[in-house]
Amino acid sequence: MDLDNKRQRQSALRPAANRGLYLQRLRVANNRHWWDTLPAPESRRQTRYVTYALRCTNGSADEDLSALRRCVEDADGAVGYYVTDSYGTTNPNDRPGWLEACRLLQLGFVDGIAVMNRDVISPSDDHYEAVVQWIGGRPALLMLVRAEGSDSRLSPVTPTIRKGL
Predict the structure, then answer these.
(1) Rounded (5°) CA angle 34-139-27
(2) What is the Cα–Cα distance from 101 to 83, expressed in whole angstroms?
(3) What is the arithmetic mean of pLDDT over 24-38?
(4) 125: exposed, middle or buried (C-beta count within 10 Å: 0-12, 13-18, 19+)?
(5) What does each C-alpha distance from 120 to 60, 86, 144 come to in angstroms?
(6) Coil, helix or strand for 154?
(7) Which end of the chain has less Cβ packing within 10 Å, N or C?
């Protein structure tokens, strides 16, 4: 009987009617799990991020990288690495810069990846969900400057991760 009660009480993320909302909840739950695994605040080191941006048609990603750096610093983090890629395939695993960011995360050089919006990773819901699942399985952080949603490119620049979340 106790085992049945325990199974029922476990919080499971149920898919929402809106896939973007489900993906946002999944990312926030993964980030929250990462924060819950940390030691007491006084014995923590500063959270390190790799910023990942796609280069514009003029070949520069400076504007996005500076916005990412500001958001990381506002979240009391530090930028360890800057990685850029050119626009290409919707599958992030076909981009060398994204693979480098994931390698840095996997090897423990950084605690998370910061991107402008989910479309930088992939506009495909399936590819984006696979990335969120992979990062959440580390556990690690995925910071988006603009939250998931159909109008994520038009929303104001506000970080979607806060201290203690």
Answers:
(1) 70
(2) 7
(3) 88
(4) middle
(5) 15, 10, 10
(6) coil
(7) N
Q: Quickly state the pLDDT bin for 162 (edges 50, 70, 90).
A: very low
Non-local (6+) Cβ contacts of 46 within 8 A are: 76, 77, 78
pLDDT (average), residues 122-128:
91
**How many C-beta atoms lie closer than 10 Å to residue 73's C-beta?**
13
- pLDDT for 40 beyond 80: no
Helix ranges (DSSP H) in the chain: 2-9, 19-36, 62-74, 96-106, 118-121, 125-136
Neighbours of 99 (CB within 10 A): 14
Mean pLDDT of 150-161: 44
Supply the pTM of this predicted model. Answer: 0.78
Contact 10, 140 (CB under 8 A): no
What are the residues whose beta carbons fall under 8 Å from the beta carbon of 63, sequence distance 6 or more?
56
Amino acid identity of residue 62, one-letter, is D
Task: Kindly give the pairing relationship between strand 47-55 and strand 141-144.
Answer: unpaired
